Amino acid sequence: MILLTFNIVNFEAGTKNSSIVISDDERLKITEGNTKAILKILDLHDIKASFFVEISIAEKLQNLLKAISAQGHEIAFYNKDSSLEKIDQVKKSIEEFLEKQIKGIRQKDNQFSLEELKSIGFNYISNIDHADILFPFKRLKRTSEIIEDNGLSIVPESISPYSQLPYNDFVFQILPMQYYQNMVFETLKNDDFVLIYLESWQFTDINTYKFKVPFYRKFYLGKKMEDKLEALLSWVNEKELATSRMKDYIF
């Protein structure tokens, strides 16, 4: 099973020219445009995914969240640095607006305990690492099984037995598609699922907005990222590989 997920976050990079300031509202519009591009590609290939929306912008993207949900995708949360009280407040607000339960949350560095996240109504947690150029030197072994702990499902990141690389946003961006497809195929022979996650900011045309990004992050952004995603989904359908929203697979 392929679990395709997207972190919906504002692009926080600065600009090449310090005199050019991109406001929070402009960054939000960029995020919305990137997400709509993702939705078009998913719709073209009739594939459902899970969208982890960053807590601080969730209530500002209600119309977008409505569109995501209306197309049959899952809405979950992505926490960067919000308080537990803020997460609880936004969760209740979005659930009331969508008339659907938010079951999942994703976070880095285990900010909140399982007990705390369960207490505000989450059913599963998807912890991820920071993706950077040093990924080959990080831990190369991790469990590939979903763990149940006090009624909360803990979903691990996937790692390829074929290459020992994780399925994070950075790896998808830099690897040739043929190599990435081989990774996915080999992992599915070994594990029950492959969890893939991408970041909405990767679909930004950095040249248009003059964003300043590290050299190793400049390649295959914007339209090239759209093309890579489309190539992956075309291959998934061609090989008749099963896909699922995370909440459906877990429960």
Short précis:
The chain has helices spanning 24-45, 55-58, 62-70, 84-98, 114-119, 169-174, 177-190, 206-209, 223-238, 246-250; strands at residues 2-8, 50-54, 74-79, 104-108, 124-128, 147-149, 152-155, 194-199.
Give average pLDDT, whole number: 89
Could you tell me the radius of gyration in angstroms?
Answer: 17 Å
Determine the N-to-C terminus distance.
14 Å
* Morphology call: globular
- The low-confidence parts are none
Class derived from helix and strand content: alpha/beta
Order of helices and strands: EHEHHEHEHEEEHHEHHH
Strand content: 15-25%
Helix content, binned percent: 40-55%
Number of strands: 8
How many distinct helices? 10
Structure in words:
The protein has 251 residues and is of the alpha/beta class. It has ten helices and eight strands. The mean pLDDT is 89. 40% of the residues lie in helices and 16% in strands. The chain is globular and about 50 Å long. Strands 6-7-5-4-3-2-1-8 form an eight-stranded mixed sheet.
Features of this protein?
single chain, 251 residues, alpha/beta, eight-stranded mixed beta sheet, 10 helices, 8 strands
Helix/strand layout:
Blueprint: E1 2-8, H1 24-45, E2 50-54, H2 55-58, H3 62-70, E3 74-79, H4 84-98, E4 104-108, H5 114-119, E5 124-128, E6 147-149, E7 152-155, H6 169-174, H7 177-190, E8 194-199, H8 206-209, H9 223-238, H10 246-250
Helix pairs in contact: 1-9
